[in-house]
Amino acid sequence: MRSARCVAMLPGMSTQLTSYYDGPDLTGRVRDALRKAGLDPGRLRVNDLVAMDQCHALGLAGTVALAKLADLRPAERVLDLGAGIGGPARVLAARFGARVTTIEPVARFRRLAAELDAATGLEDAIEIVEAHGDALPFADGTFDLVWTQAVLPNVADVAPLAAEAHRMLAPGGRWALAETVAGPGGDPFFPVPWADGPAESHLLAPDALRTVLEHPGFAAEVWEVGATAVAPAVAELTSAPADPNPPVELGLIMPDRDERMASLGRNIAEQRIAPVLAVLRRAP
Ligand SMILES: C[S@@+](CC[C@H](N)C(=O)[O-])C[C@H]1O[C@@H](n2cnc3c(N)ncnc32)[C@H](O)[C@@H]1O
């Protein structure tokens, strides 16, 4: 298997991240599961992986819906900030023709992402960089689109990350995001997919989040909270239903997935949390 490109974090960069995402190496576990499903772990299609590698509540449908909402075009330069094991990046590269740079601070996620990018033949379309969102090792105006999915709930202070997202974008560039906000129903129940407890979870109310995100110089072109935030993904899922028997699933990466998803559902039902979907534009 060829190896994908990986770039190391620059010395002196910030490391504001909990140990929540630490754990055993994932590459062997995923290789074994792929072989068990009759696949060659060195030669895969992006679709073989989508039930496992879209590490956010709305899965592949959420990724495709957000890319369409952001009007992502072939050859656009995307910065996927907090890319996890790289599933959304592979979809943006393979389906939309984007040139993607991913940043991800967790080594075991980067290792698996590199292996899967190579196995799907996308190592030239996707660059993997070790970095944190509040200190990005790229020149001003490098990207057309900044992308975050399910990242901000882990970020205690979103302001530096928003400033960096703004700095990364060329004039007129946009930030597409699908995230979670605090609801009026009270504190969330744990564990959730992004945290074992409140120390790792940093949800803002919708208006507070919008204020901090827009502060560096963004204007929201799309800002949907609650049911209207999930409607594009639901429409996507209706037109392209998920494979009912995928070869690998999210539970491989998140072993206690069912418990976390159950509390996620309860938190949404009781309005303790809500999804937010947005496209923010940097002034031209
Ligand atoms: C729930 S996962 C989502 C992964 C990916 N965006 C997806 O949707 O498949 C959250 C990811 O954000 C990363 N992350 C959390 N805080 C971050 C920060 N301050 N800067 C960059 N990445 C961060 C975590 O390491 C983790 O990989």
Describe the structure in your own words.
The protein has 284 residues and is of the alpha/beta class. The chain has one domain (24-282): 3-Layer(aba) Sandwich (Rossmann fold). The protein has helices spanning 27-36, 46-53, 59-69, 87-96, 107-119, 158-168, 206-214, 227-239, 257-269; strands at 6-7, 77-81, 99-103, 126-129, 143-149, 169-182, 218-225, 273-282. An 8-stranded mixed beta sheet has the order 1-4-3-2-5-6-8-7, with helices on both faces. Strand 2, helix 4 (87-96) and strand 3 form a beta-alpha-beta unit. Helix 2 packs antiparallel against helix 4, helix 3 (59-69) crosses helix 4 and helix 6 (158-168) crosses helix 7 (206-214). The chain is globular, with a radius of gyration of 18 Å. It starts with 5 loop residues before the first strand and ends with a strand. The model is unreliable at 1-15 (pLDDT under 50). S-adenosylmethionine (SAM) binds next to helix 4.
